Queue: 4 jobs
Job 1
Amino acid sequence: MSAGTVPGKSSRPSRKEQILEIALELFATRGYHGVGMDDIGTAAGVTGPALYHHFAGKEAMLSAALIPVSEGLRDGGRARLDAHTEPADQLAALVEFHVAFALERPAVIRIHFGELDRLPDESRRIVRKSQREYVEQWVDVLTRLQPGLDADTARVRAQAAFGLMNSTPFLRSQLPREQVAGVLRDMVHRALRG
């Protein structure tokens, strides 16, 4: 799956997406400041200067990775909500969607945790706005599922659930992927329902 995609979208990545994926893996393992354009070029099999045909620089790569992912989560969440009418089904679909994302995109999660402040201000604003909208989708479902639950408490529960799901870059499990997904889904449902 390419950097700018979320679960459910499959297509052959373009050369630009391939380069971005390589850059993300390098950023995730060595840190943003530990990677230069020449490093990315070498890993991608192109000269550092040739990368500038695709990206203006490392900040542009980071923006090209994190903005579409944040927007994709928001839009993917909305699609799952629209596909179901009952809050319990909507919540199950959101959990399934995010767990799949977290298992497929641990490098993006790691970069988000450690490098979000490296984004230019406008890119960071776009990412944060998409994230807030995504969180509010979860809050809406939780408050409809549990009518006595206030929005602030639902927001804390949603954020805690994201912490569980987004722990994937730090898991050192030998369990099969689907078993890890099942554990995460079960824990998230328990956490969200209190």
Job 2
Amino acid sequence: MEPAKRSAEDRTLLSEPHGGIRGTWQWTWVSVLALVVAGYAPPAWSLFAAGTWDVRDSILLVVSAVSLAASIVFVGMLRSGLGQATSSTRARIILFLLAAAPWALASATPVLSIEWGLIPWTAASLIAVDLPARRRWWWLGGALLALVLIRVVVAACTGTNLGQMWPLSTTIVSVLFPTLVIILPLAMVFQMWLWQVVISLDAAKSERAELARTQERLRFASDLHTIQGHHLQVIALKTELAERVLSRDPDKAATLIHETQDLAREALEDTRRLVRGYRAVSFAVEAENAAAVLDAAGIRMTIDLAADPPPELDHLLGSLLREAMTNIIRHSAARQVTITLKTDEAGSIALGIGNDGVPERPRGADGTGIVSLTEQYRAAGGTLTAATDNGRFLLRGILPQTAGVT
């Protein structure tokens, strides 16, 4: 039991990000949203700091607000990560055109400064996040060139001279503008790249957990095939031979039939020994195997084996633990699992398994596995209960120490 405790303590140091993969996306979304707001803030500041207000300013404010809403919606479309083309080409075009509209409107009057170019540049940075790496920087270069051309063409059409095309409203903005031009695409790409890494790691952990279960099934299948395959092949040959000699040598056929019966009984006994050996794994070893599966799935486990159950109970206790692990991996978003094994006031062995990440109606609580185990525990004189409590799913199995093998 001591190795199980030590390994569980070591695993508690490998805590995943707060809130798991959902929490990671929330932090990513908030970070990218903050960058979007940072891109829209200087133009809005220059608009309100101008000291005058007319119809054109109101139109500019409304168009900018629509563009900001479109950017926020687009951030939600990027959840699948970097370079996955999760957004449509139409969505990208609409986003960029909505963002370029305030820039074109601001370019029509030289009184307004060039920080309005941050709005389409923010949108271009968002679009770049969802492009493959080889196209991303070409897109940003093309977007920058398009913004310059929009400013030049609109300003020229309105009679603005060259010296009036590129003013900045304040000294503070003159520092923020080049900083944001550089930071916005780099920071957005980094945030979404990090999110994609988290998705990949989570998928790898799930695959490792499934691989561990598959390897155990293959091991048992290999052992069963080794035993059954040999016996069944010999039985088939002997029965064929008995059939051939039955008419001309009945005594020989009877001898072969008796040998076949002995082989069948031997095969049955070997199979029983194999199953008993598979079942006879101690609960401490079962706990170690469960810890390995949970660790592969990125789930922390706290284990307390305070009781030493008799070997007769290992099968029922191990079956409950394996069923619980299967339900946790398949049907929950658990981040923490607690396993306790102790002796209760009546002297019975009590196994408790709890996990968080429970859906609104936890699957597996009334599945066939739990129902079957409940019947087995009842037949052994014990009880098995499943319940939810404050967002946790709790399995509790109680067995008297005198319970026989089921």
Job 3
Amino acid sequence: MDWLDQQQQYFETLQNFGPRIWDGFLLTVQLTLVGAALAFVIAVILGLMAGSPNLFLRGPARVIIEFFRGTSLLVQLFWVYYVLPLFGLTLESAFTVGVVALGVNYGAYGAEAVRASLTSVSSGQWEATVALSMSWPHKIRRIIFPQAWALMIPSLANLLVHLLKGSAVVYIVGLNDFNFELDQLRRVTDAWFAYAFVGLVGYFLFALILTQGMRLLEARAKNKLGQGPTLKEILSPAPKVPTSGIRPGGAA
């Protein structure tokens, strides 16, 4: 059997595996989106605490961030799945275990992006909030965070793609995710077809969609600050003609 005939046979096998591959891919999508939502909430809370002038908030936040950044996602997954039940805290499903492990791990990384973005807001903005006698929650909510939000999105976008790839470890707690189903496909085809073709295309397309979505979110955040075009202008198929520097009669 030559190589082309073998690949044709593999594609026929893939058709039979199609429903399983699709279900595994959907599970990976759910893990990524729900885990990212939890990670974002944790990142904002810890990031705000780490950037607080109050030592009683900043200190515990630093300890939590460094602990979860300094330990392996795989170890944390085992810890949530096997160790927490020893203390009487059993999560309802393996899916919840995966979401919690992903959310806590990447939330700790995201907290640094939030804190760094807060400190990147110009000192003049901070000074203006002090001059207006704004409380810490008020200044963060109304002035600082909207500006920091546009700055932190690129870093959060990178973490989102890393979270997608990190979700591949959840098969060890019994979840039949995309990576698990790819391994089952490998058993009846080969590693090249299952991982280097089906897996590569699947993960890449989902990562591309996530990245483009985050870029649109960044553009919207910048537009709200008066920087850059609107989403309508970005998505419009009509070409954008610059108007600055053009004199009457067409002379520049």
Job 4
Amino acid sequence: MTTLRLADTEALPQVFALKQKIEKLSDKGYAFGHQDTTSYGVGWRHDQDAYTSDVYKVIGDFPLVYGFDIGQIEHGKDKNLDDVPFDAMCTLMRKAHKEGGIITISWHADNPVSKGDSWETTIAVKHILEGGSHFQVYKEWLKKVADFLLRLKDENGMLIPVAFRPFHEMNGAWFWWGNPNCSPEGYKALWLQTLQLLSVEFEVHNLLYVYAPNLVFTEAEYLLNYPGDHVVDMLGLDLYQHGTGKAFKKTLKTNVEVLKRVAETLKKPYALTEIGLDKVSESRWWSTILDDTVAEMGIAWVLLWRNDSENHFFVPYPDQLSANDFKTFSQKAHVLFLDDGKV
């Protein structure tokens, strides 16, 4: 499946290697991922003396895919929007990478026009495109993103490859870069400009670029904002359960089938780049809803969202309602955690 061309025409060899690694995952099954898994969990936050995860506390292994978010880096802040210090984030990324984990980064950027957060939907995209009133602001923000990405080096000084998922869920109305706050044409222009600035202007060459809409029902919906084969390396999809398990399972099946058809046509690896049920209130969610629907569908990974507190979490912690089912799920040969991904 691997082509010799990536979105960044000067991508480093380790980025090609990451893409090949991602493609090979689906030969064995699919990888388990978790957002902020080593940064914090229910009742704890990372400190320098303890390296843990709620996933590890339940099953004795870590995820194979590690999600991080760099929201607030655009302001030069010390911590991200979820209070994770960027220095600590770099350390956690290095450790995960050294152990064979895959790093994926999202960016909940603030609204560059209104100065509100990502969810403040004042029209912004047309103003940050070249020639717009806030182009220079956006360019300065992106320089800070670039500086952070170029800090991500392993113990040998090699840049760590990252699956970068900017401006996700663009077909939803909740972000300033989403429809209808931004037209599909505007979104495509923003994607191309971001790629151009990062790779050419700021010489960031350690990224795979991941395009990831929210809930869709047709290929046309999925591709509405798609900026083009030559500027996307991987396809994603974000989907959360808000109603019954039965209804979600049906929706998930439809969405994964759409994603698979598009990805096979475009010959790109694909993943569920965000998924979950807040507070995991169904005791057998892992085996009867998630795995029963996505196994053998060719996806590279599922990334569960973060464990913030007992009131907002997506992966079980010890003794949580779904913890026993999660253990059963984790032991399935085709569900890949960190130890399964080591070669």
